[in-house]
Design a protein that fits this description.
The structure holds two protein chains of two kinds. Chain A contains four helices and no strands. In chain A, helix 2 packs across helix 3. The N and C termini of chain B lie far apart (about 55 Å). In chain B, strands 1-2-3-5-4 form a five-stranded antiparallel beta sheet, sandwiched between helices. In chain B, strands 6-8-9 form a three-stranded antiparallel beta sheet, with helices on one face. Chain B is an alpha+beta fold. Classes of the chains: A mainly alpha, B alpha+beta. Chains A and B meet through helix 2, helix 3 and helix 4 of A and helix 5, helix 11 and helix 12 of B.
């Protein structure tokens, strides 16, 4: 496959084209808003394309370590890096982690709760990175 | 319905059927921008007596183009009920196309109110005191709406605890039903269960109570619009929803203690019932329905259903609110 430009670069180029060429030619205000939304989504997608598999794999390992202390199996021995497979493993790891964290909170295990919330904090931080500086408007 | 005719002609036919005495001619229709949920237009009509009048059409969006969902069949009787009581001012509801047979989708027709959204008066250099009083007086007026005056079909929770349980369950249920597990939402829902503030009497919750939905104008009191997410719940949800909102030039952030002091004074709530921690709590609780609808929009896309550009766009909003929620829970 032609690896360069990367998906991230391609999408960012589409974003630039949308803003510099398409948007100035749009007269309808509602369509302008749609174009601006599409630009945000393109930039989100570019950021995700560059990192999401690595981020999810990293987090799966950390979630597995957290859950592992309770002996619950999390990740199959499937090392496919196809996005759908990684997302599937990520979802299973997230479910097991959520359950383990709920148990830690309910049992008053502060040390374990603290480790769990630190992992959530990392997830939330990466979500901010994907937002590419977006801030809420309009509502 | 004939899809080939314009909205202007459709409205004219609808008015002829539903309000024949007007003898109305529709002279123009233009969309009102803003808002994420309904398709809103303003129509200029000329009545048979020569009087020019503006009407607002509040319609469901075409299928596959919206994220936020609500039912005009619930909103319409609520508007009729609110119009009949003095507690709060609303735009007068006039007509309802309950099937979409006339106007293309379920559409509420109401009087147009000349005015400026309160949010637009909050420029960077604005003196927020007067706006804050306006906002909080409206919040207090909602609290005074007698529940007995509301439509029979409106769900009335039996007590405060049951209501709070059901509001938290909005998060729990959505998290369970959607395709992907969301540990942040699970953690936040657990925090809500464990950190309830003291109760207050149940009352009307607007459901999107922000200064953009309060119209200020000469010759009329503040008018509250966009009632689609209204319900009976904890009235602090509305003010908490605003306190945590990311809207610019926040009247709350400008001076939280002054804001909350005035809110307590107007409502009679105590310092235990209304404080910054309680507002954080009700920010999360008051956002439940909208947050979950954003989750559902993203899930619809995951499952291959059309949800328009709004669904992927609002993934940013989900990320934003998750960060805010999590920050509150960790304090």
């Amino acid at each position: 496959m032609i690896a360069r430009p990367t998906t991230e670069q391609i999408l960012n180029e589409c974003s630039r084209e949308l803003i510099e060429v398409v948007l100035p030619a749009v007269a309808d205000d509602a369509v302008k808003v749609t174009v601006l939304m599409m630009d945000v989504v393109l930039r989100n997608s570019a950021k995700r394309a560059g990192h999401e598999i690595a981020w999810m794999n990293d987090e799966i390992s950390e979630l597995a370590r957290f859950v592992g202390a309770t002996g619950e199996p999390v990740v199959d021995a499937d090392d496919s890096l196809h996005l759908d497979d990684v997302v599937e493993r990520y979802g299973r790891a997230g479910e097991a982690f959520a359950h383990a964290l709920e148990t830690a909170v309910a049992s008053g295990d502060d040390e374990r709760t603290s480790r769990g919330t630190a992992l959530l904090a990392q997830r939330v931080e990466r979500e901010q990175e994907v937002m590419c500086g977006w801030s809420p408007v309009g509502r | 319905m004939d899809n080939d005719i314009s909205l202007t002609e459709r409205l004219e036919r609808f008015l002829a059927e539903a309000a024949p005495d007007l003898g109305a001619t529709v002279t123009s229709i233009s969309p009102i921008s803003g808002g994420y949920s309904r398709v809103t237009s303003v129509a200029q009509i000329r009545r048979a007596d020569g009087v020019e009048q503006k009407l607002v059409l509040r319609a469901d969006p075409p299928s596959g183009h919206g994220v936020f969902d609500s039912d005009r069949d619930d909103e319409w009787p609520l508007l009729l009920a609110l119009w009949e009581i003095d507690a709060v001012d609303i735009a007068r509801p006039r007509l309802y196309d309950a099937t979409g047979e006339w106007l293309g989708s379920k559409t509420i027709v109401m009087d147009h109110v000349e005015g400026t959204p309160l949010q637009l008066t909050l420029g960077p250099d604005a003196e927020v005191g007067a706006a804050r009083s306006t906002f909080l007086n409206v919040a207090a007026s909602l609290q005074r709406i007698p529940l007995s005056a509301l439509p029979q079909g409106m769900h009335k929770p039996p007590d405060w605890d049951t209501y709070i349980d059901s509001a938290i369950d909005i998060y729990d249920r959505a998290e369970r039903e959607l395709g992907d597990s969301n540990p942040v939402v699970r953690y936040v829902a657990g925090w809500l269960r464990d950190n309830r503030p003291p109760p207050v009497p149940l009352g009307v919750v607007h459901g999107d109570f922000q200064p953009g939905n309060i119209l200020i104008g000469d010759g009329h009191p503040p008018v509250v619009i966009d009632w689609e997410f209204a319900r009976i719940g904890d009235p602090r949800e509305d003010v908490g929803y605003y306190c945590g909102s990311p809207l610019p030039n926040s009247m709350y952030a400008a001076d939280p203690e002054a804001f909350l002091g005035e809110y307590r004074e107007l409502t009679g709530y105590t310092g235990e019932q209304v404080n910054q921690q309680a507002m954080d709590y009700f920010f999360i609780l008051g956002m439940a329905e909208l947050f979950v609808q954003m989750m559902q929009g993203a899930d619809a896309l995951t499952r291959g259903r059309r949800a328009g550009i709004m669904a992927p766009f609002l993934v940013n909003s989900l990320c934003y609110f998750q960060q805010r929620y999590f920050g509150i829970c960790r304090r």
